[in-house]
Fold:
Amino acid sequence: MSEPERADAHGLGDEGRAGAGRGREGAEGAEFLRVAVRAREAAAVLAPLPRAAKDAALHRIADALVTAAPEIVKANEGDVARARENGISEYMIDRLSLSAERIAAIAEAVRQVAALPDPVGESLRGNVLPNGLELRQVRVPLGVVGMIYEGRPNVTVDAAALCLKSGNAALLRGSSSAYDSNTALVGVMQGALAGTEVPPDAVQLVPGTSRESVKHLMRARGLVDVLIPRGGASLINSVVEESTVPVIETGVGNCAVYVDAAADVDMAVEVLLNSKTQRPSVCNAAETFLVHADVADAFVPRALEALKDAGVTVHGDDRMRSYGEDVVEATEDDWRAEYLSLDIAGRVVDSLEDAVAHIRRYGSGHTESIVTTSQPAAKRFVALVDSAAVMVNASTRFTDGEEFGFGAEIGISTQKLHARGPMGLPELTSTKYVVTGEGHLRG
Structure:
């Protein structure tokens, strides 16, 4: 059967094939079609597999990653060297870099996913209707999940593991800066799957490194069931605006820490420092801190000193700048910035409501934290802040699938449809209704 015929067999006519990637007459487009059709076919084989088969495949992948660590690291070294030649920041290089230790941690995350309950087949609700029909709503795989992501090659394995466990095929398009790393990782995973019930085509890279290859994936409606972009604002906005495949938005993190009038100052300094500096290059790192005027004299000088000692540059409003000569004047762009570096924006506010207004205007809906000893203040902040996660007296860095007990996450959704917050296994499923009767006929 030819590729166009196989595409038609999956419900794609001429219009659908065009939607599965413009420029299909080109070699890259033709190769994408072959890959996407194979992913679709693999998804059909994978969906009904029992948990034992999927878990066995995941353990094979984890073992293979550890065994192949030297060749994966060698491939990654080439990506890192090119990134440095291209002037990429050290924070982004940190996200790109792999080591034997990091690969071991990635493999352990795969094992953790294998240990999690299988969401497929779970009954969400059910009852017997008055006419005797038995009705059940059960979880089912989404089908083919496309991922577009930047920099971090660990996402390649995390996404594949979560997709496989939830019965989905994964079609992965990482950044060109990590192409060699991702190619090595997918090769290892496909090799591990070859001896299992899970088809190796259930994990594939989108061919090519050009922007056209991204467009093929974004327009693969009918072959790809959902698209998850994971990266910076420009990437996510581009996918949302250009994709014909349904999109789940993830990742952009302009997270804020609000230090309330009733804050424990020692705790507030530690929470702020951890939120900003524990790992600055990730989406749940704090990029803004807001301080109630009533506690500013006690808190701000200590916070500025601690941040300076940690190498953090503070971009502040006039009131913040009055506490330290090293504070840089903040611009409008600073309040919206996802720095992903040792920079943070700071503002003194007159009330909790002013802090919430700032967050609503400039925040990305990812994670916000309040530090306070006042239970009413905490409850009000939680009620007013409309973000995927709200922390009370805790670092923003806890918004993470593994920290939440979900295992590796495929991303942190900042939208409100279907999935919000860290996306674990249940968020990678849809549902269907199963209706059982005894020859029931509708009158």
In short: Residues 1-25 have pLDDT under 50 and may be disordered. The longest strand covers residues 134-141. Residues 22 and 212 are 8 Å apart (CA to CA).
